[in-house]
Amino acid sequence: MKDITEDYRKGLGKRESLLLSELARQNKSVFTAGEAKKVLGADPYVALHNLKRKKWVLAVKGGLYAIVPLDIGAKGAENFIVHDFVVASYLTSPYYVGMWSALNYHGLSDQIPAAVFICATKAKKPLRVSNASFVFVHLSKAKFFGTEKAVIEGREINISDKNKTMIDCLDHPEHAGGIDEVAKAIYFNHEELDFSKIRAYGLKTKNVTVFKRLGFILEATGLFDRYAKVIAGITLTKGYPVLDKLGLKKGKSSERWKLLVNTDLDPKRWMY
Predict the structure, then answer these.
(1) Residue 136, exposed/middle/buried by CB under 10 A (0-12, 13-18, 19+)?
(2) Residue 81 in contact with residue 100, Cβ under 8 Å?
(3) Strand 252-254 to strand 259-261: parallel, antiparallel, or no bridges (unpaired)?
(4) What angle do CA 162, 163, 167 make, to 5 degrees?
(5) Is-contact 157 88, C-beta < 8 A?
(6) Statement: the pTM of the whole predicted model exceeds 0.85
(7) What pLDDT digit, counting tens, does each position of 183-203 carry?
(8) Domain covering 4-82 in this structure, CATH number
(9) Surface-to-core class of residue 263, CB atoms within 10 Å of its CB (0-12 exposed, 13-18 middle, 19+ buried)
(10) pLDDT in tens, 115-147
């Protein structure tokens, strides 16, 4: 019987071997066609086509490839999945992984979002790449701060830190699973958060709505007295934005927090 490995992970040609060796030397597990061209000094597409055919690389999207590790096994690319955050880092620039994705990454939410949320300064339509969905959240350049580096599969990924993640989710609860998910994150993880940084980040965003939502959440969860300083001295504007952007624009008005309360936050419900 023909050995099945003969159909997978076939031998490398000289140019193919050169490309993989040089990318390995550069510690690049994911690379672009442009980077391949720099290594080979000529059009890389024949070599890339052969590497795909032989299951040594996976075509992630147009012009983006991933090297399949040897320990994946005989079938190579057929058994290989690139981490979604690594793919995200190649889709736009500048960027950072944020919102619900960062909330889950930092352990502030046990819910795994169905898409990866990428904060970007350029508007971009949602994408589907390698069976994963990517949602781009358009933010102004003034809101691009409070990030850190996470090393995933050998690549540095930009991701919002815990406190900036909370501010972003208060700013855009529709990209965080809704205000209920944001409130749960604060309620169950408040001791891990730095509310002085949250205040500073909130002021830097220049969006008072984040403080309206935060104040309401702290009051609804019985945490307001403990963290009242985060709101102290901040003048709440007269407009009445909705508490939850995923809800209908109807409900009771909160005079204290200048919000249209269109959903109920009940910590008792979160215990089950």
Answers:
(1) buried
(2) no
(3) antiparallel
(4) 120
(5) yes
(6) no
(7) 999 999 999 999 999 999 999
(8) 3.90.56.20
(9) middle
(10) 999 999 999 999 988 778 999 999 999 999 999
